[in-house]
Amino acid sequence: MANCKYFTWAFLATILGLVLGTWLGWKATGTLAGAGQFLFICAVLAVLEISLSFDNAIVNAAKLKTMTPIWQHRFLTWGILIAVFGMRIVFPLAIVAVAAGIGPFAAIALAVEQPHEYARIMTESHVSIAAFGGTFLMMVGLGFFFNVEKDVHWIHWIETHLARIAGIKGVEVFLVLVTMVAFSRLLDAETARTFLHSAIYGLITFLAVEILGSVLDASQQAIEGVAKGGLGAFLYLEVLDASFSFDGVIGAFALSQNLFVIAIGLGIGAMYVRSMTIMLVEKGTLSHYRYLEHGAFWAILALAVIMYAQTMVHIPEVITGLFGAGLIGVALWSSIRWKKANPEEDPALPAAAD
């Protein structure tokens, strides 16, 4: 029951969101069946977002540990507003506005008056979004494993080799570029051009965020005299959250073409991600479960490859979510086994007296 306090705001958002979704269904259809359908879709979208975001919460928690308390608070307040309103409402509208060559207000009107056309434009933008987001997430995942200082390995026979060659400059970029080219050769010429163009922008965005984050945090450290992440880490987490959201936002249109229903369902899920992140940080869960973070980053790499593959075949978001959650579940199970085998190294236990 103690953990329930972390989900108070998420529970409130669930109640408010489901009530609002039901009201939208009643206004749109004028029937109880229509209201119930909207309620069901909002609930399914929320569950979908949560299932796709276990790894997001874990990675957020890992990064938040390095941030100052004030920037932690800013991410968990401003960041969630950006995640809910920016990625779930503004982002789809921006995609449609750019793709259709119309203004933002015209995009809103299109979403309200012609939801089928709005959904069609969003769906047609899937290759660009998947290539961009998949590339960014691939760089995030590889950055965790290509680390010369990494001395804890879960899948030992792979992770030890990756850590060993991490000292080679540009190895992650090389691997991502090879993967980009390999996937593009499986697509037709026009789709391949779109894929490569968007994937390159994803790579540039990751490198730009890394460079800008380092500069911003270095400046802050010089002023405050502390070696903790601030604005740069905040920016990194916001772009990372956006990349995680791409898959869910696009997949949501398979269930509903109503922008506001999608925003409600995914927004509820985003609140649970925030709650899980806070719980993981305050309870020190990542330090208690040795391989949990590893499982999250393997899930990120899997999601990146799946997003690439979705440019060729449709992969249901349910499968994506279950696969990522499964990897994290196995990592958690491995961590529990390790704790039982090595109780003297469990950080949750008090240190032995000298």
UniProtKB/TrEMBL annotation:
<protein>
    <recommendedName>
        <fullName>DUF475 domain-containing protein</fullName>
    </recommendedName>
</protein>
<dbReference type="InterPro" id="IPR007427">
    <property type="entry name" value="DUF475"/>
</dbReference>
<feature type="transmembrane region" description="Helical">
    <location>
        <begin position="75"/>
        <end position="107"/>
    </location>
</feature>
<feature type="transmembrane region" description="Helical">
    <location>
        <begin position="32"/>
        <end position="54"/>
    </location>
</feature>
<keyword id="KW-0812">Transmembrane</keyword>
<feature type="transmembrane region" description="Helical">
    <location>
        <begin position="199"/>
        <end position="219"/>
    </location>
</feature>
<feature type="transmembrane region" description="Helical">
    <location>
        <begin position="166"/>
        <end position="187"/>
    </location>
</feature>
<keyword id="KW-1133">Transmembrane helix</keyword>
<feature type="transmembrane region" description="Helical">
    <location>
        <begin position="291"/>
        <end position="309"/>
    </location>
</feature>
<dbReference type="Pfam" id="PF04332">
    <property type="entry name" value="DUF475"/>
</dbReference>
<feature type="transmembrane region" description="Helical">
    <location>
        <begin position="259"/>
        <end position="279"/>
    </location>
</feature>
<feature type="transmembrane region" description="Helical">
    <location>
        <begin position="127"/>
        <end position="146"/>
    </location>
</feature>
<feature type="transmembrane region" description="Helical">
    <location>
        <begin position="7"/>
        <end position="26"/>
    </location>
</feature>
<feature type="transmembrane region" description="Helical">
    <location>
        <begin position="315"/>
        <end position="333"/>
    </location>
</feature>
<keyword id="KW-0472">Membrane</keyword>
